[in-house]
Write a structure and sequence with these properties.
Blueprint (H helix, E strand, L loop, with lengths): L5 E3 L2 H18 L5 E6 L3 H11 L3 E11 L6 E5 L11 E9 L3 H13 L4 E10 L9 E6 L4 E3 L4 H15 L8 E3 H12 L3 H4 L1 H12 L4 E3 L1
Parallel strand pairs: 1-8, 2-3, 2-5, 5-6, 6-7, 9-10
Antiparallel strand pairs: 3-4
Bound molecules: adenine.
Length: 220
């Protein structure tokens, strides 16, 4: 078993899941006047939902995790807490996933209290029901076994972070100025249960970026 189970999500799956999610919203009879994407993960699903639900108004809020000084715990905050008048409107708040759900709850409550819409409902592609603090109004997939979903819009960023994590935490790679390419691949597979081949050009590009930042040097 990998330490961190990862599933690579394809663009085709994103379209299929967003279509399925749109159907659930439509079948419920809810007709949003505007869609609000939670940045950054909600952007692509939100844009697809606009298309699939015939919605032209799309805006966004950015919800983020911050590590509080002197505290190990992370706290969710809204990066740009602007106000708009949404009185008389029905909103659909869209994100990729409800994991703990903290960032999304924060965004929903902020919008409710400050934008004053008639109603705001939450729609996500995936809901990790075993860890989430709340159940979204709409979801397409219920996940029970916690997994890191590698969405196609964050492949390069995630791959760099995956590599940085094993450089920090795996005793075979810690504090090495140079790492053997084969060892890096082996440790990566063990940790994440996916192979560099599955990542295609993203793997080479992630390494190139990390080398450029001076984070590592790979010898083949
Ligand atoms: N963002 C927060 N939790 C996530 C997960 N489990 N997979 C992908 N993106 C996430």
């Amino acid at each position: 078993m990998p330490k961190i189970p990862v599933k690579l999500v394809s663009w085709d799956e994103i379209v299929e899941w967003s279509r399925g999610l749109a159907k659930r919203v439509e079948e419920s009879g809810y007709t949003p006047d505007a869609i609000v994407a939670v940045a950054r993960g909600g952007y692509v699903p939100a844009r697809l939902l606009c298309d699939f639900l015939d919605v032209t108004d799309l805006l966004s809020v950015q919800s983020q995790h911050w590590v509080e000084a002197a505290k190990a715990q992370e706290k969710a905050v809204l990066k740009y807490p602007y106000k708009v008048d949404m009185r008389g409107k029905r909103l659909l708040l869209v994100d990729d996933i409800v994991d703990t759900g903290e960032t999304l709850l924060l965004a929903r409550d902020f919008i409710r209290d400050n934008w004053e819409p008639d109603e705001v409902r939450v729609a996500v592609l995936q809901w990790i029901s075993t860890v989430a603090k709340f159940r979204p109004d709409y979801y397409y997939i219920e996940v029970r076994d916690w997994t890191w979903f590698q969405y196609p819009w964050t492949r390069l960023e995630d791959t760099q972070q995956f590599i940085q994590r094993i450089l920090r935490e795996d005793p075979r790679l810690q504090d090495k100025k140079e790492v053997e390419a084969d060892l890096l691949v082996q440790v990566f597979r063990e940790w994440y249960g996916i192979s560099p081949e599955d990542l295609g050009w993203y793997w080479e590009e992630a390494i190139r970026r990390l080398e450029k930042k001076g984070v590592l040097r790979v010898k083949s």
